Amino acid sequence: MKEKRNLILLAGLVFLHLVLISVQAPKGDEPAYFERAIFAVFTPIQHGIAAFFQKARDFWNNYFYFRQVQKQNQSLRAELFMLRQENQLLKNILKGYQGAEEIQRLLSPLSRSIIVASVIGVDSGHVYKSVVLNKGSVDGVKKDMVILDRRGRLVGRVIEPITFKQARVQLITDEESGVGVLSEQNRVIGVLNGGPTGKCLMRYVLKTNRDISEGEEIVTSGYDGVYPSRIPVGRIVSIAEDTTLFKSIVVEPYFDFSELDRVAVLAVDLRDLE
Amino acid sequence: MRDFKKVVLGILLAVFVYSVLGKISAPLVVVFNAFAWVVLYFGLVRQEASGAVIGTVCGLLQDSFSSGVFGVAGLTKTLLGFSTGVVARKINVTPVDRSFVFLLVMATAEVALWKLLNFFLFRESLSLGGGLVLLQPLATALVVTVFYQIVKKKQGEAT
């Protein structure tokens, strides 16, 4: 009797999961409302834990280390972070422009275009797929905004769901991600997808193309309509050929998971400035 | 009631461990699946009904921290908790070596089922992400075996 009851319980739970999975069938580009609701309910837990650790770390720093030096150091690091972002963005944009007036026009919106965010969660099932940020719609974060690491190198883009104080980021190492890229030296165009081991694959470069080599830097091309051009992405670590028409190019992304505690969200569409 | 508190504490600890590991290094959450620890442990000591319910809770929690489809880890962990409870009731898995092998088999089956579900339902690749996920069953079996043996020893001393 007890075994029968247990089996009924199991059947009920399995049915519940199958229903849960079924109701999440995506409707076009919009994520299911259910997925949004789940994200909204559970991300505050991550936010809380991240905030707890941050507070604990701050407490430790403030009371057990040299207080003033630590404060100054933190402030300088924050400033350095912003300056690096601005510097990288400016370098990228100025490559294509000349003339003082034009540069002045470009500079003014950039200083207000960076939202500094912290990563509060990683994907439990697929580490290289996504992360969760502690900034959301209240802070001005919107879908498809570009995410850069502390050195201004490409990390990914904001995807749904976005709640008031949290947002999910699709990493460029996600197998479902696609970034329009080109090689810095000879401007060979391709599409960058994530690979299974945290590396990326540059696709659709024909075998007959001899203008690409190992060690070359890869930057965004801007042709995908999401990422602005000339953002550093990574470096080619290997090129091989298989039975297909295309080369098999492995790219090591520049961004490092261990440095992802702080990232920059580009709140301005740099393509408008180009 | 006391057991209920233990279950809640276990789940909270799993969330805590997951968050800490994610902060230290992201790939660690692949190797150390704290939700699986809780499901296996309570499946062992509380048998199949509790194992299935705790599996559901832990699995859905894991799903909520993932960008994958909500319910896949829930389904696999429900089956894990239930089957662990059934087997633990029918054969003696108390000795250290037996419990380790048993937990290793169960944890491996769970990872395999999770991968296969993602592959068949959502056409995700079957790649092993550099092999890190292969360490998960080993780490899970090791952690749960050690914890289970310590608790058993403490209970033995108390009685």
Please give a structural write-up.
The complex is a heterodimer of chains A (274) and B (159). With 274 residues, chain A is α+β, with helices and mostly antiparallel strands. Helix content of chain A is 35%, strand content 26%. Chain A has helices spanning 2-22, 33-64, 67-94, 100-110, 270-273; strands at 114-122, 130-133, 146-148, 154-162, 167-171, 179-183, 189-194, 200-203, 217-220, 232-241, 247-253, 262-266. Chain A has a six-stranded antiparallel barrel with strand order 1-2-5-4-3-12. A six-stranded antiparallel beta barrel of chain A has the order 6-7-8-11-10-9. The longest helix of chain A has 32 residues, at 33-64. The mean pLDDT of chain A is 81. Chain B is mostly helical and 159 residues long. Helices cover 82% and strands 0% of the residues of chain B. Chain B has helices spanning 2-24, 28-31, 34-64, 72-90, 96-122, 132-158. The model of chain B has no long low-confidence stretch (mean pLDDT 87). At the A-B interface, helix 1 and helix 2 of A face helix 1, helix 3 and helix 4 of B.
How can the largest sheet of chain B be summarized? none
Structural class of chain A: alpha+beta
Strand order of the largest sheet of chain A: 1-2-5-4-3-12
> With helices defined by DSSP (H or I, 4 residues minimum), what is the helix count of chain B?
6
Average pLDDT level of chain B:
87
Which geometry of chain A do the CA atoms define?
globular
Number of helix segments of chain A? 5
Bulk shape of chain B: globular
The residue ranges of chain A in which pLDDT falls below 50 over 5 or more consecutive positions are none
Give a brief rundown of this model.
With 274 residues, chain A is an alpha+beta fold. Helices cover 35% and strands 26% of the residues of chain A.
SSE diagram, text form:
The complex is a heterodimer of chains A (274) and B (159).
Chain A (H helix, E strand, L loop, with lengths): L1 H21 L10 H32 L2 H28 L5 H11 L3 E9 L7 E4 L12 E3 L5 E9 L4 E5 L7 E5 L5 E6 L5 E4 L13 E4 L11 E10 L5 E7 L8 E5 L3 H4 L1
Antiparallel strand pairs in A: 1-2, 1-12, 2-5, 3-4, 3-12, 4-5, 6-7, 6-9, 7-8, 8-11, 9-10, 10-11
Chain B lengths: L1 H23 L3 H4 L2 H31 L7 H19 L5 H27 L9 H27 L1
Helix pairs in contact in B: 1-3, 3-4, 3-6, 4-5, 5-6
